[in-house]
């Protein structure tokens, strides 16, 4: 296209019917030259005016008119703009308006002319993505995907899962990666990050906090297969089960009918692996013949080193008689999951097949993977090589040194070696001398090897893995800082040209599709963030550049620079877990819309998580209800049905039940058993993220408790900002991760904005410690009602649970309950980064206060409240202070009561323990309570201090009894780490209360 336009322009210069115009100093002598010269100046003046217009922003700041031509016979004005003119997105109304205004500025002589505007080799209308064109008949079909069979047969599928998102991304294969990684620096002979530690993160792992917990699950919930060139499992243990050699004492079992297939195949060998050593070429593989009924099997029995979740990776060989439905049955602690693997692709490498819970040790019935020979086709070949459980530690040696870090933080170069990709083709591209370059160059080469197409024409005869990759996305953040009230913002990079400046992908699709993809991603992110967070969120350029990660892939590709990790304002947003969820949802929606438009099919956005969830008792039955949540940003995201997942006691969630309505009854539950539930919403686009986890149980006693879940908070750390000081203050409030944080490297120590970057070891403002990097930091799992409920069962209480949103319904009845247990965790009113964002996560909401006030009128009713900020949060609301004083009978004393991690009982009974611990330090299991409340009893004869912090004797818990009773605890009850301690503490509270009642009655 670019060459064609240059040719057209050359013809225009030699045609006597055309009056060309160049910049004034280059204008040659032509008939009527003055008229055309005036045209040039008028348009140039007009463009200068609208370039400076901050409202319309129709032209990028550096855009200029290079030249123009007037074709008199065709009455067409052609404007040739510089490359910067194409740095912004264009829409039909903008293009039409711009053409009309340019024509208007041209003068009366040209009023009937057509206006064509060119930049970067394209006419302006061509820069409008198909998705943003109002009439599908105007779609550019050259940039649309080649039609595929429907439904497709993806690399891996889960046939028993009830959601079939055919209007989502079912059957798509997406290559995705997050930034850089821990790598070997050849020149310094050390392993290091590729970027600096600033504002508590390092870019090498920071985008992982979007892709792994949010973006990949959203894409997979929409039905697609996500492929990573880096390890995706955070589990540092690793188990290999293989016919050649296994992680002892793991083993593989099969019958004599299973035969040796040959080589190459995987073998553990003797890690660490030296440069170029490929474990997938050091062993062999086995096979069995397929049948329409299961008549043979291969059983992998792993020895699990520690109870937990493990990613499962499969591998198989390349054969011409492979089946596309090899059946694996995974037996895990949550039940069994059936997988169908398409062995016609993805051979001789690790293929991710889900993450599953396993118990420690060898448990064939609940800890094995069975490959059967059942298939739709009989007489074909089902191959088997190694399986892998867990992400493990880095095991690639560079100059005799291994990383000594979890594999998930290492760069792509090392994972791709372990995953069997050929060295000189994919990851060793600089002759073993520059790992830094290898790492960013290998990702695009990896995409092409997955699909079998290459950027180097000399290597196009190499087969590859035959996986039909639909697109690839590189997720990064950028450098740059400013002392303004506007973020640095979001940049997208794409390439309209490939190898040797070709304008076409190998399948014949126009590479301008890359711009479409980049535009849709950037637009979706910026539009959503402007609506949800900051109306002034900066949209940076759409750069057409030959960056490896955007240029090399032979599929539509883009490189996202979401924000600046070196800019404090950007990171005030960027450390917020809810922000990460919303950005990830924006990217998922953009991918969905791009692929749906490219494939000319409808799309549906998967729903948001449900809210107002409750699990209530009715006799021996459980009544579950919830509310589907509409998405104000996406009309198609309404739920059509729901999935209910259940586990018992300390088990794992099993297969879901499908509900067409937002309620279900679970009949005849067992006594003294904790039943635990979560709910997802689903539609034709896929499945939502899960709800909070609620639970219920029936005890032998007669009284029933209601556990009220009011711990919704996820947030960034506290901030300090008074020029020149700016930064994150962990010592005030560490914030609350969403389930867990994988990007935290350590506390910030350099707060002075004036300190400049020297190098990545001394990065200046924002510099942070490294004592937690590679650690997993536990956050809000939204799963604490079972912890409270189990302790209540031990005290003889049956219990139900609900979210606080349920209490907004004034008809909600408290009559069944003798006790209310309110979970506040680290709930605390949290302001937004900018005034547009309303504060959220208030502790004492009006509906909750109303319910507790009403309940206090019941004789002998008991209220339990616990949380780190139950007194602190009331300081911002005078009415909440009065409520705490009048109803809950405590007053606030301090919000930094202790760092000891211990409380002691006051005047404990001889047969009860006096000391109890709570989690005060960051760890990977339970969120840390860094700022517990000191609360004191009001001046009332019926209230007393029941617990004090061990280090300073500040009051940690109060007990009130008169007509009703209140136990208030300044630490979250669930932060007490063991069931034994929690049971003992609650037993002590009830025993004290009983003793008080006895004395009161006397």
Commentary on this structure:
- This protein is an alpha+beta fold.
- Among the domains are: 2-128, no CATH class; 239-390, Galactose-binding domain-like (Jelly Rolls, Sandwich); 809-1001, 3-Layer(aba) Sandwich (Rossmann fold).
- The protein has 15 helices and 51 strands.
- A 12-stranded mixed β-sheet has the order 33-30-29-42-37-43-44-51-50-49-46-47, sandwiched between helices.
- Helix 5 packs across helix 7, helix 8 packs antiparallel against helix 11 (577-598) and helix 12 crosses helix 15 (979-1001).
- The longest helix has 23 residues, at 979-1001.
- It is globular and about 105 Å long.
- The termini are far apart.
Summarize the structure.
The protein is an alpha+beta fold and 1002 residues long.
Task: Looking at this protein, list some descriptive labels.
1002 residues, alpha+beta, Jelly Rolls, Rossmann fold, twelve-stranded mixed β-sheet, six-stranded antiparallel β-sheet, 15 helices, 20% helix, globular
Remind me, CATH topology of the domain at 809-1001?
A: Rossmann fold
| Number of strand elements | 51
Poorly predicted runs of 5 or more residues: 1-31
Physical arrangement of strands within the biggest beta sheet: 33-30-29-42-37-43-44-51-50-49-46-47
Structural class: alpha+beta
What is the highest CATH level, the class of the domain at 809-1001?
Answer: Alpha Beta
- Figure out the total of helices: 15
Largest beta-sheet characterization: 12 strands, mixed
* Helical content class: 10-25%
CATH architecture of the domain at 809-1001: 3-Layer(aba) Sandwich
Principal-axes geometry comes out as globular
Distance between the termini: 96 Å
The fraction of residues in strands falls at: 25-35%
Rg (CA only) = 32 Å
Mean pLDDT over all positions:
93
